[in-house]
Amino acid sequence: MKLPFSLRCFLCFLTGVGIFLSSNVLAAPVLPDNIEWLTNTNDPVFSSGDAKKGGTLRSAILSFPLTFRVVGPDSNSSFRSAILDNQLSLIGIHPNTLNIIPEIATHWAFGKDKKSMYFKINPLARWSDGKPVIAADFAYTLEFMRSKQIIAPWYNDYYTREIDKIIIYDDLTLAVISTKAQPDLYLKIGLSPTPRHYYGRLGKDFIKKFNWKIVPNTGPYQISKFKKGKFVQFKHKKDWWAKDLRYFKNRFNVDKVIFTVIRDHNLIWEYFKKGRIDVFGMTLPKFWHVKSNTAVVKNGYVQRIWFFNDTQRSATGLWLNRDRKIFKDPDICYAFAHAMNIEKIINKVLRGDYFRLEHGFVGYGQYSNNSIRARRFSLPRVVQYMEKNGWLRGTDGIWHKGNIRFSVGVSYSQEAHTPRLVVLKEEAKKAGIELNLQRLDPAAAYKKIIEKKHDVAWMGWSTSLRPQFWEHFHSENAHKPQTNNITNTDDSEMDILIDAYRDSLEESERIDLARRIEAKIHDLGAFIPTFMVPYVRQAYWRGWCLPKVPGTKNSNTLFDPFSTSTGGLFWFDKELYEETKNALKKKKPFKPVTLIDETFKKSSPN
To answer: CB within 8 A of 186, min separation 6: which ones?
Structure first.
């Protein structure tokens, strides 16, 4: 029997489907009066009109991802970005001007309450399965991210604390309402859609059910083929809906991107020299200064580029697990920091190419506390802190206290970092601290660290436009697995500062709180910053091309195939590539090419 319309609507309200009325989605047939719609078609494009379509980019990854999910257990690996970067948001940020630019939304408006934003969805927007992107897909994002079934506490918290509700006016018009007014509103509520038509009602089997599913997306590429442990292939959509938009035109030019699992960095280099991989990162000094002295580079078949950027710096360093008894006392963390001879690594192993990172939030403009200086190698300071706390040097030279010996494991994943850590180990021994180096497969290293089973983690984190503290340093994320608080920092004063930072309505106050939090992180001593690299160095086979200005000021690589903010600027010139291959066979050299681009170089890396 067909139900009356009123009853059907009531049932829709109860289930949160159909017309998508729920506690998080309110019916609102009329937009506010005097709304001022904005867009941006005036900022400079950063792609090249010379770009050509076609070709396959062959790249490498050190390990196969543990899952294709982007939330939940084991999802927060480096490969996750390849999937997320193919999911557009309502709006984006121009990588050079930092102004808002359109993505899925063509227009936006700010509410007078300073906590509401309104959006008009591009009617061309489509999921990869052909279904239109509608306002209800953004409402479902809120439902999805708040669900306990995804087992993702950070997302559960963020989408509850930061976003109040979504209002749907029609299929192409919506409002996203923040829980509070804030100065960077557009950074908080420029949501990505989630396909309700694909996920449906989430159950307790979510983690297992969607572990290897290829979810519909809105970006230029989607996973088309994979073999576990071997490779993942992405394919460009035949008629991507956004290909002619101002900030996407002449970008995302290759037809396919293939990531092959090659579990050793040196082996990737061998693949690259043989032309089986197209691009190779040369940030490591031994590749730029030494291994580049090889025939394919000297004869011009492979070209090199050194491109300076101006962006936020990764929080790279040593992360001490404060749930380990030895690191519970900040004084012992300080002693450990003073036993780390980072400067010797920079000068001896890294040829002076890297710069010392002073703290974990460098490059964030006014939000960075540039008065903080990392603790330097100092044997007297180590002795001072250790003796103050009753430690003694043993007959083997290592500090001990009772039955505790200052011997800790350092978990890391890249073989290329072993020479750095060997120097660190040798210098730490002089200071009476024993480091046991534990290199693991990247996936295994990540899992060990995220499960909080490490003593010391040697790693770095990705960045955002503003400093993010809660996930890394709030006690809410301490003493439990699958959170980013890998130091297990649990400090009530820190919690108060972080909560105030998240709740602040004033930018000046947020800046002050950010600097105080950074100082507090330094005082707790559980993170020891190591290096920063204010540039990109890469090698690529002749036939791969870049724009006149090869990247943006926020580019961390020049051959990122997917990122909607900075990626997809390169292209493949088949004729040039074939000319190169033929010359290689005939041993006909070209003039060697090393490009140095300082468009965005700052006078000081700090």
So the answer is: 91, 100, 108, 117
Predicted pLDDT at 7: 31
Written as one letter, the residue type at 238 is: K
| Cα–Cα dist 215/381, whole Å | 54
Residue with tokens 């802190």: 385
Identify the residue whose tokens are 């780390």: 340
Tens-place pLDDT, residues 485-523:
999 999 999 999 999 998 887 889 999 999 999 999 999
Q: What are 76-124's pLDDT values in tens digits?
A: 888 999 999 999 999 999 999 999 999 999 999 999 998 999 999 999 9
| DSSP string for 144-205 | HHH-GGG--HHHHHHHHHTEEEEEEEETTEEEEEESS--TTHHHHH-PPP--HHHH-S--TT
Query: Whole-angstrom distance between the N-terminal and C-terminal Cα of the chain?
Result: 71
pTM score: 0.79
| Domains in the chain, CATH or no CATH each | 16-46+88-209 (3.90.76.10), 278-310+534-606 (no CATH), 317-531 (3.10.105.10)
Give yes or no for residue 15 having a pLDDT over 70.
no
CA-to-CA distance for 104 and 124, rounded, in angstroms?
A: 9
Question: Which residue, among 369, 385, 382, has the nearest Cα to 341 in the 3D structure?
Answer: 382
Q: How buried is 503 (Cβ within 10 angstroms: 0-12 exposed, 13-18 middle, 19+ buried)?
A: middle
96 CB contacts (<8 Å, ≥6 apart)? 43, 44, 46, 552, 553, 554
Give the position of tokens 């002089």. 430
